[in-house]
């Protein structure tokens, strides 16, 4: 059971790490990390619809209006119909959740160091592709924005502008997403091993190798790994022996 939860946790970590990496972009000498905005949920809209965006994060389902069915995983922006306070549609999805194409990034056309433009094309609008272009403008005076400017023109094509200090180039330093992933993985493995050993030793009164969690599974993995190594070694050896025999045969025929 512990192994099942460990695998389940890793399956959920992988798409999160994918979205973290895609929101880190480098253009020339400027490095951006839009993950610094993933704790915010921005709103904007018109008289008919309200739009919500959690930059590089999952937009809270309760912010998107009422829905008779659970929302899809990976929604980073949604559309709510104001009149009925109901969920209208997804505006876009994060990378790593099976939606295509992936997010596209480029530096703000206003000039180097002025921000990032993120384009989403992985949601539908009236059964057609929805185009959402979000311009994150570097503004050091706005640390925690709450609103965004949303314009739809033509239908199903949206231009969103977000002004935030988190859209400014970052300085070197800090912990990367890959490092965070490795740390989480190591912690989970340690908890799994220690928890399993303590449970088997004191609860099940096991000794020796039996104290290891799921010893049969791990012994099977080791056995299969050794078998695979032997197979590779034998294949390489046979390949060289075959080449040697062929070369020898050609030499004798001459």
UniProtKB/TrEMBL annotation:
It is a single-pass type I membrane protein; Single-pass membrane protein. GO terms for cellular component: endosome membrane; Golgi membrane. Residues 21-170 form the MRH domain. Its main location: membrane. Residues 1-18 form the signal peptide. It is found in: Cytoplasmic vesicle membrane; Golgi apparatus membrane; Mitochondrion membrane; Preautophagosomal structure membrane. Pfam families: ATG27. Keywords: Autophagy, Cytoplasmic vesicle, Disulfide bond, Golgi apparatus, Membrane, Mitochondrion, Protein transport, Signal, Transmembrane, Transmembrane helix, Transport. The chain crosses the membrane at residues 180-199. The keyword Transmembrane applies. Belongs to the ATG27 family. This is Autophagy-related protein 27.
């Amino acid at each position: 059971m512990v192994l099942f939860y460990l695998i389940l946790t890793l399956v959920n970590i992988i798409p999160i790490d994918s979205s973290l990496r895609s929101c880190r972009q480098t253009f020339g000498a400027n490095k951006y990390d839009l993950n610094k905005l993933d704790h915010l949920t921005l709103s904007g809209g018109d008289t008919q619809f309200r739009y919500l965006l959690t930059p590089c994060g999952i937009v809270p389902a309760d912010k998107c209006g009422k829905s008779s069915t659970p929302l899809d995983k990976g929604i980073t922006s949604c559309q709510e119909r104001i009149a009925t306070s109901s969920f209208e549609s997804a505006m876009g999805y994060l990378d790593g959740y099976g939606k295509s194409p992936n997010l596209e990034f480029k530096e703000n056309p206003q000039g180097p160091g002025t921000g990032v433009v993120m384009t989403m094309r992985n949601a539908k609008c009236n059964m057609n592709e929805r185009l959402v272009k979000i311009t994150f403008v570097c503004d050091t005076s706005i640390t925690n924005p709450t609103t965004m400017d949303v314009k739809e023109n033509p239908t199903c094509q949206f231009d969103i502008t977000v002004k935030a200090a988190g859209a400014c180039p970052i300085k070197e330093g800090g912990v990367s997403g890959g490092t965070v992933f490795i740390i989480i993985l190591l912690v989970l493995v340690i908890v799994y091993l220690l928890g399993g050993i303590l449970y088997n030793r004191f609860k099940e009164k096991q000794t020796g190798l039996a104290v290891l969690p799921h010893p049969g599974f791990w012994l099977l993995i080791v056995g299969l790994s050794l078998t695979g190594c032997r197979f590779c070694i034998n294949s390489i050896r046979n390949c060289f022996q075959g080449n040697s025999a062929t070369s020898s045969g050609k030499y004798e025929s001459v």
